[in-house]
Design goal:
Layout (H helix, E strand, L loop, with lengths): L12 H17 L7 E4 L10 E6 L5 E8 L23 E9 L4 H9 L3 E4 L4 E5 L3 E5 L18 H11 L10 H7 L12 H13 L3 E3 L5 E3 L2 H11 L6 E6 L4 H11 L7 E3 L1 H8 L8 E5 L4 H8 L2 E2 L6 E5 L21 H11 L3 H20 L1
Parallel strand pairs: 3-4, 4-5, 12-14
Antiparallel strand pairs: 1-2, 2-3, 5-6, 6-7, 8-9, 10-13, 10-14, 11-12
Helix pairs in contact: 3-6, 4-5, 8-10, 8-11, 10-11
Length: about 375
Amino acid sequence: MAHSVSVARSEGASLERALSDALALLLQEASWLQQWRVAREIKAPQDSWDLVASGPLPAGGKGVLCVECKGVNFQPNQFPNLAERPCSAGKNAVSARVLAMPRVSPRMASLCQYHGWSWYDLAGNCRLEIPGVLLIERSGRPAVRLESRSGANLGTPEAARVVRALLAPENAGRRWTQREMVGHFADLTPAIPAPSLALVNKVAQHLRDQAFIESLAHRGFRVSDFDGLLQAWRQAYRFDRHVRRSYFTLLPAKALQEKLRLLDSQGSVRLAYSAFSAADLQAPTVRQPRTWLYVDPDFEQELASALDAKLVDSGENLVVMLPDDAGVFYQVDAGANRAPCTNAVQTYVDLRKAGGRGEEAAEAILTQRLKPAWAGAR
């Protein structure tokens, strides 16, 4: 059924019929549900639901699913407008509110769960729950091909600059305008190319649609869902775009740290501790034997010479990453008597992609460095 539906033509009544059929199939797959039916609800316009599914429950009583049908252009920032709509089930009945769409994104599914809603899509992916009574979950079914307005790709280096600025603990709670976002990069050390105004506009619109940022009464915007935005960026972030080099040096740990400090003594930020090594400084949790560094590609040979480090195929104790964009050096975490390390938000996304015990180390960064700063901003 999912492959036979033309989403572009499934608007209004035809979309509603397709979503009605999809729900009927889901209920039929649940063999323990008998005599359930899906019907068009007819009530006063202000109280109406597009579909209502109901039937007897195995343990007795009646279950009711109140379904709101939305098209492909329904955005997460529109969900709060219907989140509190009541679903009246009547006596001896239990109910749940359900969002039905051609495709339900992970972000939309997360909002549904947060507000106590169920959901399903045309492909048959779903989470239908009446707490304590009924739970049907399906996932992994190929989504219906959509024709909707395109959003921003948070995985590009240019978009990542905007996201870093929004999520950095130092900027938590800051009010932004699009022009202020562009101008913000002008005074940074090291210099990081500013995103274009057009790109900032596109990213801001996408983040607003996804309910990650909110518009303010007197111009501008600010982050409204820090953790949601971080996870969306984590999923889009491409750690493999950085060139990774394996080096070996005979320098002991303290001598290596001192060499790195001296190499950055002028504050030019041509290198920074990254990933596990940054986490050792920001939220020590995981011990590992390698030193991880971001290094400006033009500085690699000077660094190798200063550390008497050699490229190796295995057994490295120095991991040098040549970034695909200078944005990884955004608002580095400088410290007394040491080389800088990446900003905590950069450390987090790198750790989540680094493998090994990276997820464990990333969770420490999130709970000890990022969430406290964001909570203070609220």
